[in-house]
Every structure is written in C-alpha cells, then in structure tokens.
Write a structure and sequence with these properties.
The complex is a heterodimer of chains A (265) and B (384). Chain A is α/β, with parallel strands linked by helices. Chain A is built from 8 helices and 10 strands. In chain A, 31% of the residues lie in helices and 24% in strands. The longest helix of chain A is centred in the last third of the chain and has 16 residues. The longest helix of chain B has 32 residues. Classes of the chains: A alpha/beta (265), B alpha/beta (384).
Chain lengths: 265, 384
Amino acid sequence: MWLLSLGGDSLANPSTYLREAVIETSNLVKIYKEGTIKAVDGLNLKIGKGEIYALIGANGSGKTTTISMLTGSLFPTSGEIRVLGLQVPKKRRIVSTRIGVAPQEYALYSDLTVEQNIWFFAKLYSMDRGSFLKRLDELLPILRLNERRKTTVSNLSGGMKRRVSIACALVHQPEIVFFDEATVGIDPVLRAFFWDYFRSLAETGLTIVLTSHVMDEAERANRIGLMRAGKLVEEGSPDEIKRRNLASSIEQVFLKLSEGAVADE
Amino acid sequence: MSKAKNFSPSRVVAVTWRVLTQISRDRRTIGQMIFVPAIIMLIFGLVAGGAAKNLPVLVDNQDVGYTISAGQNSTSLHFGNSILSSLQLDDRVKVHLGSFASGKAGVDNGTYYAAVTFPANFSMVLFLRNTGQSLNASVTVYIDGTNPTIEATVLAALQSSLQNTFGSGGVVLDEQFAFGGVQFSGLDVSIPAVIGLVLTQVVLLISIITLVKETTSGVLSRLYATPLSAFERLLGFSFALLILGIGMTCVVLFIGLVIFGAVVQGSFVLLFFGAVLFALLNIFLAVFLSNFAKNELQAVQMVPLITLPSMALSGMLIPVSSFPGWVQTIAQFVPMYYANKLFEGIMLKGYGIDNLAPQFIIVGGIALLFFVMAVITVKDRMPD
C-alpha cells in the first residue's frame, strides 16, 4: 500500500518508510571474477511501492550491475536482496513472474514481428492467447505501435524498438519494472512521452526502477540514487538533493560529487 | 594543411599495423592459427601415414598336400602352407585361421574383410598342372566388396603371396562378394560416409549459429530475468533444432539416394532413424559447444575443429584398422566412426537392428552424454 499520492515535483517527497518497500538491499557487493574492483560496493537501497526511482551515475558506476542483481540475472558477491519480500537470487524464479525488465540493449528477436516478440514473452509468463490479445490491445496504442504490430523488428527505428522492448517488459502486468537506460538515444518528444507514461504507470501502483546517465532526465523521478564507483553517494528527491548540495540542477550535484575524480570507472 | 595524396604507403602500413595489432589481442584467433593446423596436420598425417594395413582375413587351409614318390625318395608338396606363411608375413593383412564357414560368417558380420580357402587337392592340382596337364587350381575368396580400397588391398596381398609361391599363372581366384553378391561402385561406397560428414557439418553449423544468435542479441540478459529456466530454454532449442535436423536429414538422404541413386540394401526406415539420431547427437554437441562461444564467429570457428578430425578418424578415408594402435583407440571416441558403421551397415551390407544394435546404442549414448554436458554447462545467469 502506498500512502501518499504522487502529483509531481511540487509535492512533498514521500519518504520511503511511508511506503511499503518492494525492493530492499543491504550491504550489496559485486566483485566480478575478472577483476578486483567492486562494481557494486556496499549498496543499501530501499524502494517503495509505486515509486519511480532513478539510479543515476556515469558509465561504469554500477547501475546495470545493480539492476542485474535486483532482477536475479546476476548473483551478488555478498549482501542481501529482497524483492517483493522474497529473497533474491534464492527465490528469483518466483520473483521473475512479478517483475519486468527492459535491458540496456533492445533485447528483441529482430527476425520476429512486434506482436511475435511480445507473444513470446507473454508465453514465458504463461499467459494465454486471449489475455495476451487483450493486453496487446491496451499496450500497443499507448506505446504508439498499433500500426507496427505486424512489422518485423529489424525494420523498426531505434525509438520503436525501445517501445517494443518496454511492451515486452509490461505485457504480464508486473508489479515492478526495471528500465535500464530506457531513454538513451531517444528524441526529446519521445522522452517526454515516456515520462508521462511512466508516471501514469506509477499511479496504478507499479514500481519503476530506471537507470540513466542523463542527469537532468532523472529530475523527473520521485527519488534519485546517485551512484559512483559502486556506491550510493547521494539519495533523495530531486529537490532534496539540489537543496542539500546547494545546486540548481542534478548535473551540478553530480559534477560536485565527482570533483577531483575523472569518471574513469 | 597539406593536400591528401592519392596513394599513401603510410596509410597502407597503418591498415596493416592495425590488423596485426587487433589479431595479436585476439587470443582465440592466435590459438586457432597455431593449434588448428597442428592438430589437423597431425591427425591426417597419422591416419594417412600408410596404406590400409592389418586388414583381418580368415584363411581356411584345406590343402592336404601332395606327395611325389620317385623311387625311394619322396617329396612332399604343400602349397597351401607356403601361401599361408607368405600371407602371414604380409602386413597388409592380419591372418586368422578357422573354417571357411566361420570366415564367411565373419565377413558377413564385419569381423573379417575376406575369407580364403584352399581346396584339399590344391597342391595336387598345381603339381599335375606343372607336369603338363591343363588344370587350374582355384582359391575361393569370399570378400567384403563394400570398400574398394580394402577389397583391392586384400586381393593384392593374396596375389602377391601366390606369386611369391608360384610366379605367375596357374591359380584362379574365385571371388565371391559378400552382401548380396554386389560389387559396389565407388559412389555407393562413399555415400554412407558422406551422409555422416554432411550431417555433422550442416547440423553443427546451423544449430550452433542459431544458439549463439540469442547470446549476441542481448535477449539472454532479458531471459535470465523471466521464469524461463535454462533447462527449458535448452530443451526448447533442442526440439526446434531436431525439427530442422530432420529436414536436413531428408535433404541429405534425398540427394544421396534419389539423385545419386546410392544403394540401400537394408531398411530405409532404419537408415532414416539412424541419420536422425546422428543429427540429434550433433544438435546436442552444438548445444554444449554454444555454451562456450561468445559470438557467431567463435561458434563457426569450432565447427571445422570437429568435422576435420572426425573425417580423418572415422575411417572414411582410410580404414581404422590401418591406424597406429593408439590412434585406433582415439577413433573409438569419434561419433562419426560409429555413424559410418551404421550407415555403411544399413546401406551396403543390409544389416538390420540385430547387427547394428551396438552402434545405435553408442550413438544414442553419446547424444545423451552431450545433452547432459550441455545441461551441466548451460548458463542460467550472467557470468560472474
């Protein structure tokens, strides 16, 4: 249950503890086999139901690694993860039925049509044809893919592929979706559309976790977690963060917090 | 700014430098450059090092000999023994002794390549012929004609033993062909082996590329976060590839049997079943190998590493019995060796399941082994 409704940035920040936490990590660490660097270094996250949470940071700061661990695709070196109250990766198969993922790549079958791609993922979530078609009729107009239903994915533009990828992540009506760099390489019009869409989804109680390395974009999220070298260096609502750091934009905060360190991660 | 020249040697050098630097960073390609030729040359060298050797042959020497009495002196002639000992010294054949009937049975079931018998009156007839009578001694050879190289080698060994004993003439070889009395054409004989080779090449290549495509498309990272288990994915792939494999088997058999008109003495159904089973073996091998290939290129590079040594070691070019002992041992681990025996057995020798059960069990067993290995090594999450 979420107790505060989210109208926009003007609203007071709903603190996490007021919401039912759907994602929790404690001291999450990931060290890849090849290498000694901690890709994720002691991460403590708490994300509430219906929140739009943006993990931001430079390339290589550990955002994707974090998302991969939260979805159970990558096993942590140490630390604990709970998603929807279930331990991950231990219960990842159960969790996987209730989450959706749109990875950084389009991650689609380019030889299949839009509908076939979405159908394949619907089948993985054990959806029957009837409820799939019903869902498709909801999703395609919203994502403006209606006319592309029978188009082979390889013939789509980047932005369209991105929307198909999002449709694949949403087809089974998950409780949490993870969008890894979902708005990269997308024109401003489409980006604005995406954010409106994300907000409307969050209003229905869906939790959205997204990553971005475009700092200003993240200002549209309810809360932001700023990552650097695998660590969460700042967290809060965009306004909170800007106030605390006496900055006018998140980008300024980011530059300030990265001061002295070249983004070489 | 100086004007760009039409042709610049330094730009050529830059490209050369860049290509060499790139390759020097790619350990797998360097490995391939060194090990692949080494392995393939070694295997082919070992296998093709000699002509066919040690071909198992059974000799039934019925010759009772002939004693010539000239006054008090008597000389005993025993040409059968002479030929036999000459044959025993010939390394092209490995002589076993026994009854002609058991030898024929041995040829029929693949134990021997030929059964040879000298009649009881062999020495006598040859002696009388020498005294001017127009007689011819005959040696009966019951021979496996399913491999012209082997057939020719066995006959050549026999001929030279006869010549060592008599010079030329006087002995007629009564050749009887096993397996329906057919003397096969080169095409008939090579098609069973070609079926095995083509199935391996095509099925491996198509399967492995299909599998690796998913890894490179990035879909895998999405699939890891769905309820689809690695085992389900692997099984789903295997079924799809099996259907493709059956299609490829049909094409291969159609071309071999209909277009080239290759002989099938045994059951077509059994041949089809055997070919599909062998295709399945290669599918599972591909599923296993795909777990280690990062991209299509690496996958494609693996295929000749399987097909070329298999071709050499399967006995397709030179019979396995001619290999050095330890190479023969290695050949026992090559699936295509059993596939060749299967296809050859069904097509040329007309064998049924009773003769070929061991080969079927081995091919099926190896297929199962590859499947288990694939299941064990399949990744169900991103690399740690």
